[in-house]
Write a structure and sequence with these properties.
- This protein has 316 residues and is α/β, with parallel strands linked by helices.
- It has three domains: 104 residues, 4-hydroxy-3-methylbut-2-enyl diphosphate reductase, catalytic domain (Cobalt-precorrin-4 Transmethylase, domain 1); 84 residues, 3-Layer(aba) Sandwich (Rossmann fold), CATH 3.40.50; 84 residues, 4-hydroxy-3-methylbut-2-enyl diphosphate reductase, catalytic domain (Cobalt-precorrin-4 Transmethylase, domain 1).
- 40% of the residues lie in helices and 17% in strands.
- The chain is built from eleven helices and twelve strands.
- Helix 8 packs parallel to helix 9.
């Protein structure tokens, strides 16, 4: 068996920053530090931070007044931030800067009088946070059917934004429908689907041309990981998502000579190593890095509160 490790794979800059924000907050505030929702969609990461002193909650109402709270990489609504402020919580925002960019676009478009169509998946934390930037004037479009029935009051003043972890191909199809219905549709100044999502999808599409099966490591609730599975299957290659090596099934590799292995943007490299070890032990796999891949070098700085703390302050 030949195993090709996708490049890039695993942690993106936004995820690395979010994890570092929680680590740094524990250093600054001491334990415990509360985190609203999973900081990123990966149980291994969540468990590691919990062991260091993070407590994960579903709502800021669960947090004692004046305690420190970190908002997850997916972003939060204005209502959540207001509730945290009313409870005097010491908030540190770990929202990915690329999600924050979408929030700013929404507010700018609203000020300019546009009705906004948000392309994304209902119930995803990022989508809830983006919808929550406005009290009205924004509606969710999940698929082509939604695009076909979306209604706006003024077709000359409509714009769209997207969730950052969508399928490139699916989003393009939805936008095509919207543009046919609303020829004046305003596009984002730059693509909202983040660089890491795009890079991982394009890499999987390329690897799918030369492998017999694709394995994607990622959580069941990870949007970008699920999209990687869809991308591989869309070009006719079997693909399976696993949270770790424990979920691998030997029959997936029956008569498979070449395996493409990738990982979603919230996945630490230790989980990739676990899958590699399984394939080596079970099938005597030879493992190689994707020779055509390009490593990512994006870096996002710490939030200003933690940068100040790193400069010598002991508390926020």
């Amino acid at each position: 068996m030949r195993v090709i490790l996708a490049q890039p794979r695993g942690f993106c800059a936004g995820v690395e920053r979010a994890i570092e924000v929680v680590d740094k907050s524990i250093q600054v505030f001491g334990s415990p530090v509360f985190v609203r929702h999973e900081i990123v969609h990966n149980q291994h990461v969540v468990d590691d931070l919990r062991a260091k002193g993070a407590i994960f909650v579903d709502d800021v109402d669960e947090i004692p007044e004046s305690a420190p709270v970190v908002f997850s990489a997916h972003g939060v609504s204005k209502a959540v931030k207001a509730k945290a402020k009313n409870r005097s919580l010491r908030a540190v925002d770990a929202t990915c800067p690329l999600v924050t960019k979408v929030h700013r676009q929404v507010l700018r478009l609203h000020r300019l009088g546009y009705e906004i169509l948000l392309i994304g998946h209902a119930g995803h934390p990022e989508v809830e946070g983006t919808l929550g930037q406005l009290s009205g004037g924004i509606q969710l479009v999940e698929d082509i059917e939604d695009a076909q029935r979306a209604e706006v009051s003024d077709a000359s003043k409509v714009a769209y934004v997207t969730q950052t972890t969508l399928s490139l191909d699916d989003t393009t199809k939805i936008v095509q429908v919207l543009r046919r219905r609303f020829p004046s549709l305003q596009s984002p100044p730059t693509d909202d689907i983040c660089y890491a999502t795009q890079n991982r999808q394009l890499t999987v599409k390329r690897l799918a041309e030369i492998v017999d099966v694709v394995i994607v490591i990622g959580a069941a609730n990870s949007s970008n990981s699920n999209r990687l599975v869809e991308v591989a299957r869309s070009v006719g290659v079997p693909a399976h998502r696993v949270s770790s090596a424990d979920e691998l099934r030997p029959d997936w590799f029956s008569n498979k000579r070449t395996v493409g292995l990738t990982a979603g943007a919230s996945v630490p490299e230790v989980l990739v190593t676990g899958v590699v070890n399984y394939l080596r032990d079970k099938f005597g796999a030879n493992v190689e890095e994707d020779a055509e891949g390009t490593p990512e070098d994006v870096y996002f700085p710490m939030p200003p509160e933690l940068r100040a703390a790193g400069a010598g302050q002991t508390q926020l």
